[in-house]
Write a structure and sequence with these properties.
2 domains, Rossmann fold, 7-stranded parallel sheet, alpha/beta, globular, 9-stranded mixed sheet, 18 helices, binds glutamine
Length: about 525
């Protein structure tokens, strides 16, 4: 295997959090990929959790699951959606993981009696985690450092960047610093001072930013750009404007217009014969921004007050919607508020319903009512993970007459545990990283709706659950028309249920949303939206 000279790009953030480092990193990744480079993007998170798997979605938004079963930061979803390439365990590292590894080594005596310290032991481990990706033969690794420069928690990462920049030598690495230019309405001005300060803060840590990307609500006037370049020690063309856009999918083009990719390639001494070809991306965007039809889909879940909790689902709607030239409007419905009395009004006029994934018993009965409403009123419905389990409970109660049917997650004493805990989960005590995670095979029944949708019999989808359809009830379900059309070929675990005769009533134990990208919209979302288009 040829050993490539991998180049490293570090993306830091200043002034405030939530500036969109993830989107800028993903956009840059896309531009560099389109210039012919093999790129991956990694996120380093400064918090102490081992991964975001145990975090409440309100804390950090959705937990994104990779093919190899890592529970990761939602930015990895952006990386995959932009690059159309899978990420892995190695693409998301937290301070918790770093310390865990170092402490385990210490316990084994690997440090031979040395005092274990942040420098060099923690920084070496961070370095190892960054460099590990180069074994996969990437030309360029983009590493996004979570948090904001100056945070106590980020210090070891920033120090590692300083060391690496020096070790790797000129032109082998670079730092892109993302800042905010606040707009003062009273004086009608964009202010550069906070950016100057955050660049200075980076310098105090021994790092010179090579490129400044400035988040701004307004165009940056020429003189302000010059001022930024001068105060931050970068060439004028290395000051890149990142104006607020209507959609995150416009960002790559906006950056490309300012030759962002050329600036980066020059800093890394890389040459490309290819111009960035964003033809397909542009055609997606055109369709996305000029839809011919509209559907409204109710997303029924319990974390709806923070829409980032369902970001992969919302983006999957956009990808598949654009493909069909259909705008998908989402009506966010908090399942805890849904009652028998208000359900008609709550769901009035929607063309489809998606019952979302989730954990715990809050809002469950509202979801069961929703599934009943969709089944009886022939409204297209897609249930994802917990959503499929809800469809199972509803069918058992209202069609099979097991009025107390439930999932063992919510009622361990139910006489009809139609959703039961998976055998291998029974003795699991630790909550973190112990669910059935990542990609598993699923065999689709010949002639089923899903078989037609996927155009294949054998598929693989990503998972994140502890409970499963209880196969003791399978015959009874199938006899009454709710068919298990997708199963795990080795274990028989039910992966998908569908109700023939209904316009679209499909529940899946897996999470199709994790695999939807701009370049490859997901067939299940596409089919669901198509069914919504024809529903009244
Ligand atoms: N709580 C359910 C389970 O663990 C569903 C999980 C989910 O929706 N991701 O099986």
């Amino acid at each position: 295997m040829s050993k490539k000279n991998t180049k490293y790009i570090f993306v830091t953030g200043g002034v405030t959090s939530s500036l969109g480092k993830g989107i800028v990193s993903a956009s840059l990744g896309l531009l560099l990929k389109s210039r012919g480079f093999n790129v991956t993007i990694q996120k380093l998170d400064p918090y102490i959790n081992i991964d975001p798997g145990t975090l409440n979605p309100y804390e950090h938004g959705e937990c994104y699951v990779t093919e190899d079963g890592a529970e990761t930061d939602l930015d990895l979803g952006h990386y995959e959606r932009y690059l159309d390439a899978p990420t892995s365990q190695n693409n998301n590292v937290t301070t918790g993981k770093i310390y865990q590894t170092v402490i385990e080594k210490e316990r084994k005596g690997d440090f031979l009696g040395k005092t274990v310290q942040v420098i060099p032991h923690i920084t070496n481990e961070i370095k190892r985690r960054i460099k590990i990706l180069s074994k996969q033969n990437y030309d360029i690794i983009i590493t996004e450092i979570g948090g904001t420069v100056g945070d106590i928690e980020s210090l070891p990462y920033i120090e590692t960047v300083r060391q690496l920049k020096w070790e790797l030598g000129e032109k082998n690495s670079m730092v892109i610093h993302l800042t905010l230019l606040p707009y003062l309405a009273s004086s009608g001005e964009l202010k550069t001072k906070p950016s100057q300060h955050s660049v200075r803060q980076l310098m105090e840590s021994g790092i010179m930013a090579d490129v400044l990307v400035c988040r701004t609500e307004h165009k940056i006037p020429k003189d302000q750009r010059a001022k930024l370049a001068q105060f931050c020690n970068v060439p004028l063309e290395n000051v890149i404007e990142c104006k607020d856009m209507e959609t995150i999918y416009e960002v790559p083009m906006y950056l490309q217009k300012q030759n962002f990719d050329d600036v980066v390639l020059k800093e890394l001494d890389l040459k490309s014969e290819k111009d960035a070809d964003l033809k397909d991306w542009k055609s997606f965007l055109k369709k996305f921004q000029n839809p011919k039809k509209t559907v409204e889909i109710a997303l029924v879940g319990k974390y709806v007050s923070l829409q980032d909790s369902y970001i992969s689902i919302a983006e999957a709607f956009k990808h598949a919607g654009a493909d069909l030239e259909t705008e998908v409007k989402v009506r966010w419905v908090y399942s805890g508020d849904v009652t028998e009395e208000n359900i008609k009004d709550t769901l009035k006029g929607v063309n489809g319903i998606l019952v979302a994934p989730g954990f715990g018993d809050r809002g469950i009965e509202g979801k069961v009512l929703t599934a009943k409403y969709a089944r009886e009123n022939k409204i297209p419905m897609l249930g994802i993970c917990l959503g499929m389990q809800i469809m199972t409970i509803e069918f058992a109660r209202n069609v099979l007459g097991h009025t107390k049917a439930n999932s063992m997650e919510f009622d361990t004493a139910t006489p009809d545990p139609v959703i039961s805990i998976m055998e291998e989960q029974k003795n699991v005590i630790d909550k973190g990283g112990t669910m059935r995670l990542g990609a598993w095979k699923c065999a689709l029944k010949n002639g089923s709706r899903l078989n037609e949708i996927y155009g294949s019999k054998n598929i693989s989808e990503r998972h994140r659950h502890r409970y499963e359809f209880n196969n003791d009830y399978l015959q009874e379900f199938e006899k009454n028309g709710f068919l298990a059309t997708g199963t795990n070929p080795e274990t028989g675990l039910v992966e998908a249920l569908e109700l023939p005769g209904h316009p679209f009533y499909v529940g899946v134990q897996y999470h199709p949303e994790y695999k939807s990208t701009v370049a490859t919209p997901h067939p299940l979302f596409r089919a669901f939206i198509k069914a919504c288009e024809t529903s009244k």
